[in-house]
Prior knowledge:
- By secondary structure, this protein is α/β, with parallel strands linked by helices.
- The chain is 44% helix and 13% strand.
- It folds into two domains: 6-54, Helicase, Ruva Protein, domain 3 (Orthogonal Bundle); 57-170, Dna Topoisomerase Vi A Subunit, Chain: A, domain 2.
Amino acid sequence: MSFFPSALDxxxxxxxxxxxxxxxxxxxxAFHILSLSEAEAKSFADAILAAKANVHTxxxxxxxxxxxxxxxxxxxSREDGVVCVVASPKDVAAIERAREYNGKYHVLHGxxxxxxxxxxxxxxxxELVDRVAQGGIRxxxxxxxxxxxxxxxxxxxxxxxxxxxxxxxxxxxxIPVGASLEFADDATxxxxxxxxxxx
Length: 199
């Protein structure tokens, strides 16, 4: 038996269906929405509907945009010959925060994961291969998470695009800045040693 009106239960259920939101957080969010003024609640709802209606994938890099092409693909100041392949739009934001990368991107919208029934045709690999086949790209950087799915996806893509004469690289793995060696796992230490650089 619920203690709340059905409309509030429905709102809690919608919030709880979001990734990373548990029941208590969903209730907190729902109560917050109820505390908003009519205008604030309408503005919140309008923002959701506008994002859903206007945001789509860029036809070049598959990142999210509300224009014909995303700002990164349109930019003349970014290097066209280098493409960083990431699993999700959130990864683009993470790399951009470092302010070190000046090339273009390709967003896969997922990784190959047989356990989750995600195959190569379920993500944006074909679009990347077509892009590389058009020429002009000399390096593709694989920037996937260093887990089984990320490694599998990177190797699969590498096999597809190497015949085009493109250099395929991946992000270096190793000890995080500020971390202690004694707490690093064996695989991280091994990769840190393999990827060591001269100073």
